[in-house]
Structure formats: C-alpha cells, structure tokens
Design goal:
The chain has about 180 residues and is of the alpha/beta class. It contains 7 helices and 7 strands; from the N terminus they run E-E-E-H-E-H-H-E-H-H-E-E-H-H. It has a 7-stranded mixed beta sheet with strand order 3-2-1-4-5-7-6, with helices on both faces.
C-alpha cells in the first residue's frame, strides 16, 4: 500500500448519556492529517447516522478506507456496516480486539424492551461475520463491507505499524478519550 493512502478511523468514549465520537484521518505512513468529532446517544440507535455524518462533514475524496472500532459503540448502539458503506461509498472495516462469543446474549440482557432487543439483534445479525486476522503477532477480529476478506486483512495490517491496533483507530480512540476527559 502506498504510504500516502488514507484511512478514517472512528472510535468513541463515553461516561454518561452521550458518547463522544472522534474520527482521525491517518496515512499509511502514520501521518495524521485530519480530525472530525460528533456525538451519539449511549444506548441509542444513532451511531450509524453519526458515522455517516462525520464522513460527510469531512468531505474528503482522498480517504480510501473507513475503519471503525467495534460494531457496538455507545453501549450497544449497533453500527450497520452495509448502510455506512452504501452512504459513504467507502470500504468499511470493523475491528475488535478481543475474542467473544458474540453480542446476542449481552444485547438481550442489556435491554428490557423486546422491540428494542429485536431491532438491535436484527441489525447485529445482518452484519458480516468476524474473522480473526493476525497482525504483528497479535490477533484482531475483522468484519468488512465493500472489499474482500483478504483485502480487509491487508488494510488492517498496512495501517498497523506496531502492536495490534490500526493507527487510525488508535489516534481516534485517544482523541475521543480526550474529549470525555474535558467534559
């Protein structure tokens, strides 16, 4: 991958009812050259729209990939990767950092309203399966829309110069945490 290729990484951090989302535009060479910020409701259903709006506000044609930290930010505010891809026309790669049996049980336990549970489960089940990807002797778990499994693994590796966290997600996570600490 060329060193000037750019990815937008989106991560979030929350303390109360509002989750701070941060987006960091990072080149494969590790140079950060842009940020975008927004919020979503903790336990809500607006994370997909938040990510789409962040990409729209950036209005940058040089971004080639969109990486998101996980699929359930802001306390199960499930991201619809297909909807994000359809809206942004960017390949979307969700990266998580721990093995798990999935979120179905946790979603059922987290919400009392059966309609809310069913809506979240429907969105969650519609997403691609997670696949393990080895990066720098660490394992991350990847879902992708808009590019093949092998291409998604290549993107994750290209944007992860060390450790197991892709640089766009690492920088976005730091920015989101900084916003929460300021609040």
């Amino acid at each position: 991958m060329k060193s000037g290729a750019r990815a937008l990484g989106v991560a979030e951090s929350y303390r109360a009812e509002t989750s701070q989302f941060a987006g960091a535009v990072v080149r494969a060479s590790r140079v950060t050259d842009g940020f975008v910020f927004s919020t979503a409701t903790v336990g809500g259903s607006d994370a997909t729209e938040t990510v789409c709006a962040m990409v729209d506000r950036l209005d940058r044609e040089d971004i080639r990939y969109l990486l998101v930290a996980g699929i359930a930010p802001a306390w199960f505010n499930i991201l619809d990767l297909q909807q994000i891809h359809g809206h942004t026309d960017l390949p979307v790669v969700s990266v998580t950092f721990e093995s798990s049996p999935g979120l179905e049980g946790a979603i059922r336990e987290a919400f009392d309203n059966p309609d809310v549970v069913q809506d979240r489960l429907a969105t969650y089940r519609a997403q691609p399966e997670r696949r393990p990807v080895t990066v720098n002797d660490e394992t991350v778990y990847v879902r992708s829309v808009g590019l093949s499994d092998s291409a998604a693994a290549d993107v994750v590796r290209a944007f992860t110069p060390e450790g197991g966290r892709p640089e766009p997600l690492r920088v976005a996570r730091l920015a989101a945490r900084g916003l929460v600490e300021m609040a």
